[in-house]
């Protein structure tokens, strides 16, 4: 387990991305699983985290990414989005290597404004240079150590070293931060969804969320036919059109009878994320299709949807937990309750099961089932009462 006060450790590693699995005796032993290739993409790090969690369900995971001089990963992920997309999968989110300690301070600050998870920082000793045929890291141990207090003040709770550092670097770094308390964070309350490059917040105090729902074959003969033929051109065109009209997120639904929905969902999610940078809502009543979309999605998707029906509740929430997604929860069961009190009971059932599985409340958006007044005369009153409850 991680202490509330900063826990500082030091070790060297040269790969640009690493996931570490911490044993139960975190103070005395560090067991880490290192990916030995350069990993800078959010989809790769999420896949690695999911695999590591499947293999070792009870061991804490640390996910670390590297950022370039423009404050982004090589595939365009900003620190806020990295933190939002990884916080539901990792126990610690970290930044390592990168451009040296100076630029990493801003990365830590941005992560600290987005997540309450512990944040690690492991700078290299500056960008390497070639001198007389040798690779040299230009910053001295004292120069790297001087950044220790800045890292803690920026929001870091774990501090170490990366390429070019030695035990002497870590010894000096420790002296600069010993006894320095962790800085309290102010992270807004709300649900986050992300793409590879963008984060959208849902909740009070944030802009009204506009979700484009045109990627849906219901009642669209030509659209459905394109899906039957395995074509993604109409899906891509609709994604671009909704993006241009100011959508904040896009709903993707490819449900056409007698078609391989799971396969089509995976292809559609990939096609859409290749042309727009908006977060996606993966929409299906088919649990296999939901998983197919989540498998290929690099960010933190919004799953549409779950309700209090026992079998669906369990299967969908297990997917949400495994892939670190957010979820739209309908306050219905086998039927749509007319009364607000009954809707609240369904919401409480969903929340209890989600908490049992380790899903955070800030991964759940409740749909209170607002119906047109023309369809249900008392509907507006019950909807308002549901919101109040």
Question: Could you give a short description of this structure?
Answer:
With 389 residues, this protein is an alpha/beta fold. 36% of the residues lie in helices and 17% in strands.
Number of strands: 16
- Report the biggest beta sheet as strand number plus sense, adding barrel if it closes: 6 strands, mixed
The string of secondary-structure elements, in order, is EEHEHEHEEEHHEHEEEHHEHEHEHEHEH
Tally of contiguous helical segments:
13
How would the global form be characterised? globular
Low-confidence stretches: 1-38
CATH top-level class of the largest domain = Alpha Beta
The helix content is 25-40%
Number of domains: 2
Write the CATH architecture name of the largest domain.
Answer: Alpha-Beta Barrel
Rg, Å, rounded? 23 Å
Notes on the protein architecture:
By secondary structure, the chain is α/β, with parallel strands linked by helices. The protein has 13 helices and 16 strands. It has a six-stranded mixed beta sheet. A six-stranded parallel beta sheet has the order 11-12-13-14-15-16, with helices on one face. Strands 6-7 form a two-stranded antiparallel sheet. A hairpin with a 2-residue loop joins strand 6 and strand 7 (134-136). It is globular. Mean pLDDT is 88; it is low at 1-38.
